[in-house]
Amino acid sequence: MADITFGTDGWRGRIADDYTFANVRRCAQGFATFLQQQGLAAKGVVIGHDQRFQAEFFAGAAAEVLAANNIQVWLTDGATPTPTISYAAVHKQSGGAINITASHNPPWDCGFKVRDPNGGAIPPHDLKTIESLIPADERGVKQMKLDDALSDGRVMLFDPAPAYIEQLHRLIDVAPIRQAGFKVLVDCMWGNGAGWFHRLLGDGATTIHEVNNQRNPIFPHMSRPEPIPPNVDHGLSFVTSLGADVAIINDGDADRVGFGDEQGNFIDQLRVYGLLGYYFLELRGERGPIVKTISTTKMLNKLAAIYDVPVHETGVGFKFIAPKMVEVDALIGGEESGGYAFRGHVPERDGLLAGLYLLDMMVRTGKRPSQLLEMLFEKVGAHYYSRIDTPFAAAKRAEVQARVAAAKPERIGGLKCTGVLTIDGFQFLMEDGGWLLIRFSGTEPILRIYCETTHQDRVEAILHDGQRIAGLA
To answer: Which of 84, 165, 353, 406 is most buried as measured by Cβ atoms within 10 A of its Cβ?
Structure first.
């Protein structure tokens, strides 16, 4: 029996190694006991899954455990986007949700995410409680056959789409997008986003053209369904031949999003968050706090100063963002991985709604994506971002952490270092308002080195200095 630990967003493991049916049932039992202790079990639980190998059967195994604990289960009738599952928890007024997904991880992984009654990530202290309640082996797990649970109504199959689509139509008027005549390329990355923009926008002058829209758990043409280069390159190669106005790229469970411009150039996720901030503050005239992880763009801090709204910076992961969004009634929350959440909705990443908002931004301004970036940079200046991911041996983690903690660089990439933040990892601040961040991933055995700067010609030097500080150069 493997030790089960919840990282940045749930528990993830390699299928048939530590991610087994037995361990999924143990995890489900821990969550069931947590719900009972919190007085939430009587409200029931929503369970959904993605398109990964055996995901629907892992979801069924979790449903069997909750049903055996006398907890009502609403089980999605097929693969479902993560934000749709989260909204279903709110619509059903349930005690929470379980989502069987490994999101952007490699094809051999699967995952187990839990959500609270708001549809948001459960905060770290409660995740620790759930971990402590996971039984040591299957002898501590209650279970019943799924067919029996379906027969007696303890598990009910349902379609979460209608309620979710109604919710999105309350948040945004899609009629102008339908009538705009856009040609939209959607890269579904072989995941849960397939077919959804057709459903959300319907028939109209705007046309949707999907690629990679079948179920294929090995995720061809990409190392993983994560909407960043080089995984996006195959999808973006269709932009110019199609004559598309924009590319929308959803990750495997459709909670994250990437974009490409009309020339097939990738728009990095920090710039997307800057565009979304500008969209709400300037074009929609809305006001409210901004929540951002330490690993995302300082363009939001500049926008917040211009429009006189507060900014709250958190550690990486929606387990930090979601509680803070609820606490401060945030206008928008987001992270460097391409996940963005919005006020009036669930405090959960929604790659489908983010795509609609960017299309609405194009409608309101009459500008194409490359022109939207020019408009943003006129407001806050041009910003440049990059990231290096390096696998590491677990035995080296403490050594690397100690080395970075002891570092006192005077300059990084030729720019003066002005301070260090340790909200999550080590973020070295630089004189141009940019930064270098060194931190360990919370979902994989990877050391991440990120940077953002106003000097395009210094990006590689900053990242190299980050590798040197970590002892990797």
So the answer is: 84
